[in-house]
Design goal:
By secondary structure, this protein is mainly alpha-helical. The chain has a two-stranded antiparallel sheet. A two-stranded antiparallel sheet has the order 3-4. Helix 1 packs across helix 3, helix 5 crosses helix 6 and helix 13 packs across helix 15. It is elongated, with a radius of gyration of 34 Å.
Length: 404
């Protein structure tokens, strides 16, 4: 619906409400005047009951009944018809405004409830929705549940979660959590404390707090430089000076400007916002808690294996080349992400629950159904259908992954 129609609907709703109020006041005032008039008339009557009984009073003659009385009755009927003729169209004109107003109010109330729930339960790990994410203490255990190490887990920012995951996928993750991560199950179906309505309220709040596409892409771009500094520091070792690390990072960025594989490596390991713009978070085991640093102090903790598979499948040893015959098929999958029941590549079958996010297209509305909030079904349209990364950046990631 064009924005002009929405403004007209709101104006019509306001006008209809005003007219209805005036009519109501007139009706109440008329009733009061009628009651007062009859009360005074009743007080003025005197005489016996026989003389005053309504069925004993003489009726008006035909001249009076077919004259003044008839004109009054016809005029009253005409007034009622005019009121109905005006009130019904005004009520009809106000219906779109009332409908949109109800959606807006319901959406705002749900977001307010979701805000309180988020601050109480989610912000402890994720921080503010539009923030950069935050580290959170997490206990690593082995397959038998025995303690391995206490680590700082890179908890992701949720400022762009509805660009890369649909609302249904976000709902699934909240319902059942993420195995082997600090993300617990919050929904009743997954054994958590939240009702379906509470999860819905949090999703509505997240929708209200999503950052815009230009800021999303700027954060992803800034993360490339931060990742270059991190990789340079790891390569040079702890004894390297700040100047040496900065110089090495600048050289990496210069090489990446001319070499898609080098750029793809930086994008694959993007540190920004807890790794939400990169691939290593899911495809490199131990990346979320800097396993190399932990392993240096604790030999029981496995070191990182670049693209060796973690929450996502391994991408090394030519796995992507076997999965996707062409670089374009590979890029298309990264662009759109996985969808439940939709095959990809030569062997892939999309799983539900937000397994592989979309990096190139906004997908919040992808699974929108009849029970979705109407205002949410145009989230991607209102925020831009573009996703977190540009086509050139996705092509660079493909170039890097296909040579692993």
């Amino acid at each position: 619906m064009p924005s002009g129609w929405g403004d007209l609907g709101v104006l019509a709703a306001s006008t209809q409400r005003t007219v209805g109020t005036v009519i109501g006041v007139l009706a109440i005032g008329g009733f009061l005047l009628y009651w007062i008039f009859n009360w005074f008339v009743g007080r003025a009557e005197t005489g016996s009951e026989v003389e005053l009984a309504p069925n004993r009073k003489p009726l008006p003659d035909d001249e009076e009944m077919e004259g003044r009385r008839l004109d009054q009755g016809l005029m009253a009927g005409l007034v009622c018809i005019v009121v109905i003729a005006i009130a019904l169209p005004l009520y009809w004109l106000g219906e779109p405004g009332r409908h949109d107003g109800l959606i807006k109010v319901s959406d705002e109330l749900a977001a307010e409830r979701g805000h309180h729930l988020y601050e109480e339960r989610c912000a402890t790990c994720h921080g503010s929705v539009d923030g950069p994410g935050a580290p959170r203490e997490h206990t690593l255990v082995d397959n038998n549940g025995l303690f391995l190490a206490q680590v700082d887990w890179k908890v992701p920012s949720l400022g762009a979660v509805l660009y890369r995951y649909s609302t249904e996928e976000v709902r699934y993750v909240m319902e059942y959590g993420r195995p082997n991560t600090p993300m617990p199950a919050w929904g009743i179906a997954g054994g958590g404390p939240f009702t379906t309505q509470q999860i819905e309220d949090i999703i509505v709040y997240l929708e209200h707090e999503q950052i815009d596409v230009p800021e999303v892409r700027q954060r992803a771009q800034d993360g490339i430089a931060a990742t270059a500094r991190q990789m340079a520091a790891e390569q040079l070792g702890a004894d390297a000076s700040t100047a040496d690390v900065a110089a090495a990072a600048q050289q990496m960025l210069a090489d990446a400007a001319d070499d898609p594989v080098r750029l793809g490596e930086l994008l694959f390991n993007n540190e920004a916002d807890g790794g939400v713009y990169g691939c290593a978070r899911c495809h490199t085991p131990g990346w979320s808690y800097d396993a190399d640093e932990v392993a240096a102090q604790n030999p029981l903790v496995p070191a990182e294996i670049a693209a060796g598979g973690g929450f996502g499948p391994p991408l090394n040893s030519g796995a992507t080349v076997r999965q996707f015959d062409t670089a374009q098929e590979h890029a298309d999958f990264i662009w759109a992400g996985s969808q439940n029941g939709v095959e990809y590549g030569n062997f892939g079958q999309g799983d539900g629950g937000g397994q592989m996010p979309s990096f190139g297209a906004c997908v919040a509305d992808r699974d929108a159904g009849d029970l979705e909030y109407i205002s949410r079904t145009d989230f991607c349209l209102s925020h831009g259908d573009e996703g977190m990364l540009t086509p050139a950046q996705i092509d660079a990631i493909v170039a890097y992954e296909r040579q692993l």
